[in-house]
């Protein structure tokens, strides 16, 4: 679309707005492309106001904007209807306010999670989220994609931890919601609206969080189960107990192989259930003992304490985002908790249809199930229709179980055959009204979200 | 449509016995827990979402506003029909429809009383976490509308963290489901947006709530201080030490006097402040946390720490705390409840400034609040029979919230803006911020009939800074 770009208009607009920018070379255009739709230019606002002005310039010129942090989630969503200008948050990289005695922090959204954790670690505190790409992902990207990891069971998801935001709008304003205190019901909780909205409403430029003290210790116990029914019994017993695990994940054999933990806790095959305990004081030992006991009672063939607990969970989290390569296909399924075993079975059957076996990581305590395939080349050429049908059938069955499936990553031409989000039902009308009220010219990430938003 | 005809039209939907429209009946519904009043044109008591949808379609045709009301315990006027119209009362929609143990969810109608849900499932070892002090009366529908808190939300979060789905009658009269029993369903998080929207986006007719295991063991401590500053500093000291108790509540001298006159819970009436600290965890974790809390309190010159030895002692301490608001009746004819929230490391100085406001006006203020969250509840004690006092009290309220806003805080931690604080929104939000929120409101409720007159400042009547603030900043 480069030939349609009003280069002079963009240059004049951004330069008078004081926003650094440049045109992309052909090679760069390919690098920054969103599903093969290549942008023409990139800009780097260095303040909240500059971010607002940059959006306003694009909006006025009718350019389509793709906000960008570290680019780790650029594959999420349907193919955009247009993508002319990348607005990068790279220069919005300040930790604005950090009050250890208040357990809150405020950052600009280009700050990476790793930078933030390093800062908070100085006071033995942390932002208790553990999404994939933890080394590169920015706060803005994590919020916009609602990216979470295994510890969401114990600490809540990023949606539960964000207490305030500032957002740049396509009308050029910077608007606040929430604040910097942990309890606040003044005005609408627009923070929730923005989390997971994939940059289709606003560009998030600043965010405040409640944070947590780092646990003094942690323990992880893994159990091996031959059957999903026995595993389900173990996870039910733990979730209904007062043990309050911080994470409780299921790994199938393929996932355990991929993470290099297949030999844990002795033997191979079947399913692993891993529980993380972070209770203070003498309760840690109790968590360890009780996890192992409940695993055994439910029928685990073996149990073991995982030596490098932190490293184990980092690998579990990272594997949610590691599926690179042309044949990588990853789905995220949301279901009521008790459906997790049935969903794991369903996805494994879907795996057979797709030839390759999926690796499955299921959050037993939150009902989130990730399945990843590395499809062989033979599946890719001209088979997209067949693939899409298999996924549509799985999705249909999940909807009957009160769940939904999002295709988070897939071969590009698959997106021609399916909506990666699926049908969101009658609430779509309200979502569309919000989109057209908040981004009336359809400037931000058009077409990438649900229902063509 | 005149009132009698409108009432007849409503009666066709819900039955004549479920419509109130004569002045005598309506008087009962003109107030809630706030200090404002407003009378509806009619009250309907529907039995289903479908009936509510019909009521809303009728209101849309007749351009009548509508307001939802649970138990009317709200403190910001959320359930007051400030622009008249229909008050939708949920006393017939009070069923727990589904207790889904395998999925750790319950599905409830809005009229279910908060405490009734936890009582109904007590035998399962689970509970619904949000526990506002009014939980014996307040409804879950009201909790959803206001995003209510309570003492135990310090560790476990407020209402929004415990709601995964809603059924809603939209402003065009459609019944729509948002979210569900599963988390992270695709699309905008409308459930999160709607919780705490104070009934301004339509009428919630069902909530899907999370159920959480009860703690295995609980320890409740009473830390007694001879200075308000020391007690405040102990709170931020506990937080800074990396301990997150289930609850840290503070009561000052005046509150203690009132509570003891009413509940006889054994609180010391000669102390300047007490902290009610509760930790809950596995039993092996209690001693270690108790000891660390004791150390922080001792560093802050605590006079004495008492640990509740029996469930009876513990319940009595909590009865005192949860009964504190109503206990004010023992020492004052009226009281006005504030709800500011401040960073936890600013509590001491904010309380000092609130004390100065009290002295300057010569009107007493009792403080009883969720200190662990920084969520203050100054209770301004007054007598509405004294001419001019209510006016003075409202001025004091503005000054108190200015202090909270200036400390980097919020106007409300859990009670909502409602009608009470709408003109003060300018203290913490810019015109652009409010305009943006209004855009969201108009997108969802283009007709503006869903609980109008709440949250947003009245056009042309924004917050006027107090005389003191004007002097201080030189305006």
Protein model, in words:
The complex is a heterodimer of chains A (453) and B (475). With 453 residues, chain A is an alpha+beta fold. The longest helix of chain A has 16 residues. Chain B has a 7-stranded antiparallel beta sheet with strand order 15-12-14-13-17-18-16, sandwiched between helices. Chain B has a 5-stranded antiparallel beta sheet with strand order 5-6-10-8-9. In chain B, strands 1-2-4-3 form a 4-stranded mixed beta sheet, with helices on one face. Chain B is built from 16 helices and 18 strands. Chain B is globular and about 65 Å long. The longest helix of chain B has 18 residues. At the A-B interface, strand 9, helix 8, strand 11, helix 11 and helix 16 of A face strand 9, helix 7, helix 8, helix 10 and helix 15 of B.
* Poorly predicted tracts of residues of chain A: none
| Number of self-contained structural domains of chain B | 4
CATH class of the largest domain in chain B: Alpha Beta
The N- to C-terminal Cα distance of chain A equals: 21 Å
Total of DSSP H or I helical runs spanning 4+ residues of chain A? 16
Under CATH, the topology of the largest domain in chain B is which? Vanillyl-alcohol Oxidase, Chain A, domain 3
User: What is the CATH architecture term of the largest domain in chain A?
Assistant: 2-Layer Sandwich
Task: Look at the structure and give the CATH class of the largest domain in chain A.
Answer: Alpha Beta
Mean pLDDT over the residues of chain B = 94
CATH architecture of the largest domain in chain B: 3-Layer(aba) Sandwich
Q: For this structure, what is the CATH homologous superfamily of the largest domain in chain B?
A: FAD-linked oxidases, C-terminal domain
Q: Which shape of chain B, going by the Cα principal axes?
A: globular
How helical, in percent, are the residues of chain B? 25-40%
What is the domain tally of chain A?
4
Sheet having the most strands of chain A? 8 strands, antiparallel
Structural class of chain A: alpha+beta
């Amino acid at each position: 679309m480069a030939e349609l770009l009003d280069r002079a208009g963009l240059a004049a607009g951004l330069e008078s707005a004081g926003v650094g920018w440049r045109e992309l070379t052909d090679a760069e255009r390919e690098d920054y492309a969103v599903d093969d739709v290549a942008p023409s230019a990139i800009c780097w606002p260095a303040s909240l106001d500059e971010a607002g002005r940059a959006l306003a310039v694009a909006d006025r010129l009718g350019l389509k904007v793709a906000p960008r942090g570290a680019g780790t989630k650029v594959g999420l969503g349907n193919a955009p209807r247009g993508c002319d200008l990348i607005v990068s948050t790279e220069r919005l990289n300040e930790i604005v306010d950090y009050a250890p005695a208040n357990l809150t922090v405020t950052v600009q959204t280009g700050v990476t999670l790793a930078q933030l954790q390093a800062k908070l670690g100085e006071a033995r505190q942390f932002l208790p989220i553990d999404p994939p790409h933890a080394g590169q992902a920015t706060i803005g990207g994590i919020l916009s994609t609602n990216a979470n990891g295994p510890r969401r069971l114990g600490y809540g998801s990023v949606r539960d931890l964000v207490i305030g935001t500032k957002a740049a709008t396509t009308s050029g304003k910077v608007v606040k919601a929430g604040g910097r205190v942990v309890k606040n019901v003044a005005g609408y909780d627009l923070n929730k609206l923005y989390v997971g909205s994939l940059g289709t409403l606003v560009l998030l430029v600043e965010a405040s969080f409640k944070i947590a003290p780092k646990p003094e210790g942690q323990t992880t116990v893994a159990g091996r189960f031959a059957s999903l029914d026995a595993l389900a019994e173990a996870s039910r017993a733990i979730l209904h107990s007062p043990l309050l695990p911080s994470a409780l994940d299921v790994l199938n054999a393929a996932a355990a192989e991929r993470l290099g933990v297949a030999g844990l806790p002795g033997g191979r095959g079947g399913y692993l259930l891993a529980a993380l305990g972070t209770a203070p004081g003498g309760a840690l030992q109790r968590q360890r003992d009780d996890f192992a006991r409940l695993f055994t009672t439910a029928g685990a063939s073996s149990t073991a304490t995982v030596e490098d607990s932190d490293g184990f969970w980092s690998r579990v989290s990272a594997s949610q985002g590691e599926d690179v390569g042309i044949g990588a296909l990853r789905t995220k399924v949301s279901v009521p908790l008790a459906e997790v075993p049935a969903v794991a079975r369903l996805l494994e059957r879907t795996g057979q249809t797709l030839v390759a076996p999926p690796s499955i990581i299921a959050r037993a305590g939150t009902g989130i199930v990730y399945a990843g395939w590395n499809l062989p080349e033979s599946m890719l050429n001209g088979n997209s229709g067949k693939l899409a049908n298999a996924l549509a059938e799985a999705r249909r069955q999940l909807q009957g179980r009160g769940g939904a499936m999002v295709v988070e990553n897939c071969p590009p031409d698959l997106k021609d055959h399916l909506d990666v989000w699926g049908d969101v039902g009658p609430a779509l009308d309200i979502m569309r009204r919000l989109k057209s009220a908040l981004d009336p010219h359809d400037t931000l990430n058009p077409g990438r979200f649900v229902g063509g938003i | 449509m005149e009132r009698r005809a409108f009432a007849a039209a409503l009666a066709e939907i819900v039955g004549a016995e479920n419509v109130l429209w004569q002045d005598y009946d309506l008087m009962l519904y003109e107030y809630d827990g706030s200090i404002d009043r407003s009378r509806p044109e009619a009250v309907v008591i529907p039995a289903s979402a479908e009936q509510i949808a019909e009521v809303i379609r009728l209101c849309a045709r007749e351009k009548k506003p509508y307001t939802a009301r649970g138990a009317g315990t709200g403190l910001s006027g959320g359930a007051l029909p400030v622009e008249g119209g229909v008050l939708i009362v949920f006393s017939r929609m009070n069923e727990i429809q589904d207790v889904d143990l395998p999925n750790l969810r319950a599905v409830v109608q809005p009229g279910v009383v908060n405490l009734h849900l936890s009582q109904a499932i007590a035998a399962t070892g689970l509970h619904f976490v949000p526990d506002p002090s009014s939980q014996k009366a307040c409804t879950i529908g009201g909790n959803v509308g206001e995003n209510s808190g309570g003492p135990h939300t310090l560790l476990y979060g407020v209402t929004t963290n415990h709601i995964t789905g809603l059924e809603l009658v939209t402003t065009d009269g459609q019944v729509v489901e948002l979210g569900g029993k599963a988390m992270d369903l695709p699309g905008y998080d409308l459930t999160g947006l709607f919780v705490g929207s104070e009934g301004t986006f339509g009428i919630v007719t069902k909530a899907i709530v999370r159920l959480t295991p009860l703690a295995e063991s609980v320890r409740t401590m009473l830390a007694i201080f001879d200075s308000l500053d020391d007690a405040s500093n102990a709170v931020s000291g506990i937080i800074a030490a990396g301990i997150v108790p289930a609850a840290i509540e503070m009561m000052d001298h005046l509150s203690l006097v009132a509570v003891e006159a009413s509940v006889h819970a054994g609180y010391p009436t000669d102390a300047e402040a007490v902290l009610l600290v509760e930790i809950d965890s596995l039993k092996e974790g209690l001693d270690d946390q108790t000891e660390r809390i004791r150390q922080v309190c001792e560093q802050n010159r605590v006079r004495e720490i008492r640990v509740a030895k029996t469930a009876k002692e513990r319940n009595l301490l909590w009865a005192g705390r949860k009964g504190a608001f109503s206990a004010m009746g023992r020492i004052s004819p009226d009281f006005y409840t504030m709800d500011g929230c401040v960073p936890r490391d600013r509590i001491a100085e904010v309380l000092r400034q609130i004390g100065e406001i009290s002295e300057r006006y010569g009107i007493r203020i009792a403080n009883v609040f969720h200190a662990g969250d920084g969520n203050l509840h100054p209770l301004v004690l007054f007598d509405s029979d004294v001419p001019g006092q209510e006016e003075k009290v409202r001025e004091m309220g503005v000054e108190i919230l200015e202090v909270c806003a200036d400390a980097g805080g919020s106007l409300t931690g859990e009670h909502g803006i409602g009608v009470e604080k709408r003109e003060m929104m300018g203290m913490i939000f810019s015109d652009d911020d409010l305009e943006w929120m209004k855009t969201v409101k108009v997108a969802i409720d283009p007709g503006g009939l869903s609980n109008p007159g709440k949250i947003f400042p009245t056009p042309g009547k924004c917050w006027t800074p107090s005389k003191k603030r004007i002097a201080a900043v030189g305006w």
